[in-house]
Amino acid sequence: MQYKFYVDGEWRHDEHQPFVNANGGVMNTIFITGPDMPPAAFSPSNMDVDDFSQRVVDPSQDSIPRMSAADLEMSRHRISALLSNRTAYELLPESGKVIALDVNLPVKQAFHILYEQGIPLAPLWDFGKGQFVGVLGPLDFILILRELGTHGSNLTEEELETHTVAAWKEGKAHISRQYDGIGRPYPRPLVQVGPYDNLKDVALKILQNKVAAVPDGSYPQYFRHSSSSLPILQQPICSIPLGTWVPRIGESSSKPLATLRPHASLGSALSLLVQAGVSSIPVVDDNDSLIDIYSRSDITALAKDKAYAQIHLDDMTVHQALQLGQDASPPYGIFNGQRCHMCLRSDSLGKVIERLANPGVRRLVIVEAGSKRVEGIISLKTTMSQIGKTLLDSGWLAARSTEVNDDGEQLTTTNPPSLGPKSPWMEAAVPGTVLGTLLKNKSIPDPFYGLENETITDIADSGRDYYTFWFSTHFQCKRLLNQYVHLNFRAINYSAEVYVNGHKIVLPKGMFRRHTLDVSDILRPPDSDNLLAVIVHPLIILGLYLPREAKIGKDVAAQYVEGWDWICPIRDRNTGIWDEVSISVTGPVRIIDPHLVSTFYDDYERAYLHVTAELENKSTWSADCSVNIQVTAELENGVCLVEHLHTENVLIPARGNIHHTFKPLYLYKPELWWPNGMGKQNLYDVLITVVVKEFGESDSWMQPFGFRKIESDIDSVTGGRLFKINGEPIFIRGGNWILSDGLLRLSKERYRTDIKFHADMNMNMIRCWGGGLAERPEFYHFVMSTVWQEFWITGDVDGRGDPVSNPNGPLDHDLFLLCARDTVKLLRNHPSLALWVGGNEQVPPKDINEALKQDLRLHPYFTTQLLPDKDSDPSVYLDGTRVYIQGSMWDGFADGKGNFTDGPYEIQYPEDFFKDTYYKYGFNPEVGSVGMPVADTIRATMPREGWEIPLFKKGADGFVEEVPNRMWDYHKYIPYSKPGKAQLVNYIQYRALFEGWSSQMWTKYTGVLIWKNQNPWTGLRGQFYDHLLDQTASFYGCRSAAEPVHVQLNLASNFLEVVNTTPKELSDVEIEASVWDLDGNCPYSKVFNKVYAPPKKAVKISEFKYPKSENAKPVYFLLLKLYRASDKTVISRNFYWLHLPGKDYTLLEPYRKKRIPLKITCNAVNVGPEYELEINVHNTSRADLAKNALQDYGNRNVGLLQKFFGRFGGTEDSNRGLKVVETEGSDPGVAFFFRFSVHNAEAEKQDTRILPVHYSDNYFSLVPGESMSFKISFAAPTGMKKPPRVMLRGWNYPDGFTVFG
């Protein structure tokens, strides 16, 4: 082994030890030439030595012999088996050297080290963590140069000298960011393999993680003497779906080949490398003949004479950059070796692999004999392939069935559909619904705008045929011998017939069931299109809008579509292919619905993972299988750690199914999954693979899994249902969820935003209401809180509505149970799922209810805490880990007996929420209030006549009647009872609701769920954020009240309270209470010392006596701060606007005229469309009373990262380089009820908002001298050239002003 160290600015090593150069790789390993290894021979030219001008091949594809499917399959099996039996350790040479870089090296030194050593990339070592934490490669330098060039800056030597590799990597995370469950960026994990990993796993890891290389080695020697036993190695590469080709030449496995001209700018070359996601691009002349190749690693040549600091990317050509590299001659470099390694399309795969095995050869350019015209490129990575799933989520067409003359057989054989002026076919929304497709093609108006839904034909009036639609697409699938192809529909509504290449398959009815169709024997050849057509039929029993009928419950489907008191009817009743469609390819054995269960012992120090999986053998012979399970954890630094690897052998009879239960896997002190507010949502990746003897890997399945235990029982003190997570009681503060969108326009992006909003509100439970969906796996993937999942029964529809309908629930009880069981299998492995509930305000019919109780019974471990030998493994149960409750008002919810004891749903007096008389029972599953969206949303979703506020009419008896306009009434407006400011009321209502419940935590209540969190359409009630994803003030009232540690005023008793929902006591804390009047004076201020808040308790601290004082103001502001006495760190801040008993808020209206002086400081980071802003707002009035200095933005070193990301703003603080805005106001007082909004400065439409936006807080107020910092993050619309504009509006500045942009 040759060791080389960079110490005190110089290299120290034995330069006389031999080694062979290697042109890059993820391992950065350079191998020494051994006695049995011939020395590498390099041509002095840039081309390899083969004489391509003398080789002649027949270009006709017809002249190339095709390998039989049997030979192809046999080759694949043998290669797979061979790689499975060889380890990465066997590739390591007897000696070699590895160059690693310290993460704290300056960027400049790292850049020069790579250049001097002639290596393109190197692993990064963190001495603090004692491990490798990443890789520094040419892409890093490409991104640095591109982004600096984009922002009009030149990279200076000083900046490279002072900024470390670690600092750059932190900045790079903003460029190629990925997101966790609530939208927070996290680094891409470091991909690494162990010495004893088998080579097949190494290859799959490279493919799955999309890394570009493997260590240089001699593994193809395993194949050199096997050409006769591996027929695939004799096959010409143009007949195999490998590599990247120019159109119409080879069977491309990816996107078309990109090329460069020598006069192209270096900047364009670097951009193409990044955008195309490739490591090299051929350089061709005007005849497309190969001249050279430009690779990512060539960027290190710019280190010569510090060329990077002297050139501009758009001024240097690719030819000049390549010449610079050839002239560089680094002391240990690769630049004098062969650059272009070539082959012909007729070359066999075996020859290609042998050439790729040579040191330094990472890819071969496929050229035409004689002309050297480029035809394609093939790399070592592209010689690998894998089994997997392909989504069919694009390229769909749709047409109304009554307008299509062909049947399914014709549509998938002789007359495939196409678009055209007279064609009934249109582009389809799949996944999606008929109404979504019609809206996409502008065939109907937006049903959520104004009264437009009234103009759309309802299915109850038109009949089912009107919304019966054809959906059609095509796909290719390369199936080998003994491989099986399944067409999967994760859900359709309501029934369908499927046609594939003229063959018909019926999909039976049911909205919540999966369909898996074996289409192996009806597929066309690999290079041909398979035609797919699906005719989807609507619900059978259509029903009319409530309250006239409630027949929607006769089918097994979502019930909200018929219309409710909060939504208009969905005209097509959600007919369509509304969830994922995919093609999956497996070997003879496939894995079906594994069940993962965790059990714990010794106070959660010992954990066991229990796994049972169904295995189906599709073949006609017994399958001898190795079933493997791997448990992997992602460490905080992005490194993946294999916690467990286990293999068991099973024999599956021909055409047979077995349920295989693994031996429990032991883990010591696993990182537990916790819900929002209690800890981190730690997840492990559980990977199951099945390898069939004489075949190889047949199928694989992967699921993120959280180790946690959820317990639930009825609390003996409150009578409410009590939940425990990992042994810790959790006080439930959450809300009811309908679904993301009423037209089922579901997406990961929308789910990510929805779930982050819920996490931002500090909610810890989401109830998926029974009239909505069985939520999708993508929803559960992002969820951070616990989830209550309900089945499809509601009191309104199933026997308790007015009029009574469906007293026996759905017509087909067996279908309901089939859908319920399939839903359990789909969702049961998600750690957030806390309980199953039979229905909303109703229990299922007796036979269904009894069946669900039996199916979802708890395993004895989850009732006795023991796992006796006589009990079966918990993973063999359908679920067995979480409770089943028969209805939302039974068994610890509401009165526990099913009486209508949830609610109320209208505006409340805030102090009532704190009173003992307000609600009698321990857990309220539904309580709501008003929920108006902001005015911008009203204007965006209604024409002008819908902008009028309601009329208020006072009757002779003094009762005030609120009369909304017709559009507000159609959008389900809830009256506010008297004129006022909707967002002020929203904030007060929902903060008081959560504070009132928290005030009696564990003494009277165990939890509460608000009705409801959001709207799946543009409704005017029950929402913390609207359908356009703009938050209301109630969002931030809820956020404040539900924080884990909270200081509050009991509005009924006037006592200060501290609510501590955490397991840790608070002893070193104090409370500051200050009162501010409308003139900016502070007539009351008091500090409460030695406050003690025990864990998981709400405690009274002291009475707030200001309202009883002699000169108390009729309207005043109260600011509460809970902070640590030791360092004054604020733990909780709460701001109230209050009036004395018998008074009202009338005096706040003239207060709008006050102009409070503000100073706003803004710093922005922008990478592509992503923006992250940090804004500090300072109320500069009454400086004599100011206690808080503006400390958020001290003197900062504006260096490489700031220059890289760019800074925006007009006026800049000379000391900070940050944009500063100051208002011209001079009135002393509280800056009251301000909110940020983000706008598209280029938009010409009326609604210029950019949505969604994530604010760390909003709807805030500042007392004199106080400052607060806010973080704002969002993505700007595609194509927007100007920076977005951030506005700040408030009570004192209703028109607002720009603080950024």
UniProtKB/TrEMBL annotation:
One of its GO terms (molecular function) is hydrolase activity, hydrolyzing O-glycosyl compounds. The keyword Hydrolase applies. Residues 403-423 are annotated as: Disordered. It comes from Brassica carinata (Ethiopian mustard). It comes from the Eukaryota. InterPro entries: Beta-gal/glucu_dom_sf, Beta-mannosidase-like_N2, CBS_dom, CBS_dom_sf, EBDG/EBM, Galactose-bd-like_sf, GH, Glyco_hydro_2_AS. The lineage of its organism: Eukaryota, Viridiplantae, Streptophyta, Embryophyta, Tracheophyta. Keywords: CBS domain, Glycosidase, Hydrolase. This is CBS domain-containing protein. PROSITE patterns: CBS, GLYCOSYL_HYDROL_F2_2. Coiled coil: none annotated. Residues 91-153, 253-311 form the CBS domain. Belongs to the glycosyl hydrolase 2 family. One of its GO terms (biological process) is carbohydrate metabolic process.
